[in-house]
Amino acid sequence: MSGKGRGRGLGVAAVVVGLVGVVLALGAVAYGRSSYGAATISSQSMAPAYGPGDRVIYDRVDGGDVRRGDVVLFSAPERYQSDVSVMQRVIGVGGDRVVCCTGEGSGARLSVNGKPVPEPYVNGGDADGVHASYDVTVPKGRLFLLGDNRADSLDSRFFARDHDGTVAESAVTGRMTDRHTMPVVIGTAVMAGSVLALVGIGLGIAAFVVRRRWRRASVPVAPQPVQPVQ
């Protein structure tokens, strides 16, 4: 193959590989940002599962997709006087009746719809924490939320005058996930796309060099004048 043909082939490869790399990297970034988020815990309210300084990954979900037991992030600036997201656990969804508590101390249990709820995640095993009783029927489209560290969590128990302490499903911005496979896949795709983009740039440079050399080699050499023999 001539230098011209090799240069053209390298140029085509550069465009194809580069475009694939850019699309792959940008697509992975866009998908990751729209589907997942990350946050840093700043309080003890969800201890021991989550403590200050912990970095967590969450799914961006609608509040209607969460279930009892899910740990969610939500925003309630009118309640907490801040736009910072709050992390708490879903105890009751629309239509549930949440009652606290039967028993005392580590033996205390809250119930949902008349059934005691096992809560192995509660700090110290104390489902009560502040020793305050409540009996709440969660309105449709709202959630009853508590922190795992019941003795140190400003949650639904303390806002009884505001929809019985419940939070609108629409306030939910994310749900904690232990599935780290997809973020790893997304990160790998971004790296692979970046590498392909760099390879495309390298192929483009190679195509330029090959074509330049071919053009130089193709320039006809001017004939040298011949001196007649005397």
SSE topology:
Layout: H1 3-35, E1 36-40, E2 55-59, E3 71-74, H2 77-80, E4 86-92, E5 97-102, E6 109-112, E7 115-116, E8 134-137, E9 142-146, E10 167-168, E11 172-176, H3 181-218
Helix pairs in contact: 1-3
What does this protein structure show overall?
The chain has 230 residues and is α+β, with helices and mostly antiparallel strands. The chain folds into two domains: 3-33 and 182-218; 36-179, Umud Fragment, subunit A (Ribbon). Helix content is 33%, strand content 21%. It is built from three helices and eleven strands. The strands form two sheets. A seven-stranded antiparallel sheet has the order 1-2-11-3-4-9-10. Strands 7-6-5-8 form a four-stranded antiparallel sheet, with no helix packed on it. It is rod-shaped. The model has no long low-confidence stretch (mean pLDDT 84).
Overall pLDDT confidence? 84
Q: Give the DSSP E fraction (strand runs of 2 or more residues).
A: 15-25%
Order of SSEs, N→C? HEEEHEEEEEEEEH
- The unreliable regions are none
Which of globular, elongated, flat, extended, rod-shaped describes the shape? rod-shaped
Number of helices: 3
Could you state the oligomeric state of the chains shown? Answer: single chain
Classified by CATH, the class of the largest domain is Mainly Beta
Helix content: 25-40%
Structural class comes to: alpha+beta
Major sheet: order of its strands? 1-2-11-3-4-9-10
CATH superfamily of the largest domain: Umud Fragment, subunit A
- Number of discrete domains: 2
CATH architecture of the largest domain: Ribbon
